[in-house]
Design a protein that fits this description.
Rossmann fold, PGM_Phosphatase, six-stranded mixed beta sheet, Histidine phosphatase family protein, PG/BPGM_mutase_AS, His_Pase_superF_clade-1
């Protein structure tokens, strides 16, 4: 099985550098164009189906990819939604960082909870689509936590992920293994992540 975790297309809040989290912000026209452009790159490899988180920006990105690649949309998964940022949702990222430098935001979903949810989502996808090559449209912070949960590194050590970047996870000898991060081979990131392989 292969799962490509794809960050959704741009929204107006992305462009303004506002925290989205669980806020259901739609794609903007740039985000829709990004999804169409990404489909042409993804077409270089075979894929079987597209899934997404339940949030509108991920579902619309998935729908565009599915249409462009002539693939079925095989559901929306609550396990793939973005981290809940509690009272900070809608704030400028810079303002959030100034107000809560330790990320102790009231009502925020814990990092541990996101990592656990990510592993649950990967297991659910593997059970539902054994052996498939899956495009899973999710969210930037969620994807970094998913990669961290698989590799054993800190989510904060992973680089920011551009809209429509794809990070690939495959089965390994003991669970999942990170193959690429935003298109770059995982091995190329090991120094930045502390030098440990997954």
């Amino acid at each position: 099985m292969t799962i490509a975790l794809i960050r959704h297309g741009q929204t107006d809040w992305n462009a303004a550098r506002r925290l989205q989290g669980r806020s259901d912000v739609p794609l903007n026209d740039t985000g829709r164009a990004q999804a169409r452009d990404a489909a042409s790159l993804l077409a270089a490899e075979p894929w079987d189906l597209v899934v997404s988180s339940t949030l509108a920006r991920a579902r619309e990105t998935a729908a565009i990819l599915a249409e462009e690649l002539a693939l079925p949309v095989a559901g929306a998964y609550h396990e793939l939604v973005e981290q809940d940022y509690g009272v900070a949702e809608g704030m400028l990222v810079a303002d959030m960082r100034a107000r809560w430098p330790e990320r102790d935001i009231p009502g925020m979903e814990s990092d541990d909870a996101v990592r656990g949810r990510a592993l649950d989502g990967l297991a659910r996808l593997a059970d539902a689509h054994p052996g498939a090559r899956v495009l899973a449209v999710a969210h930037g912070t969620f994807i970094r936590h998913a990669l961290a949960a698989v590799s054993g590194h800190a989510a904060g050590d992973y680089p920011p992920l551009a809209n429509l970047s794809a990070s690939v996870i495959v089965p390994g000898e003991a669970g999942w293994r990170v193959e690429t991060v935003a298109g770059a081979p995982f091995a190329d990131l090991l120094d930045a992540l502390g030098g440990r392989a997954a």
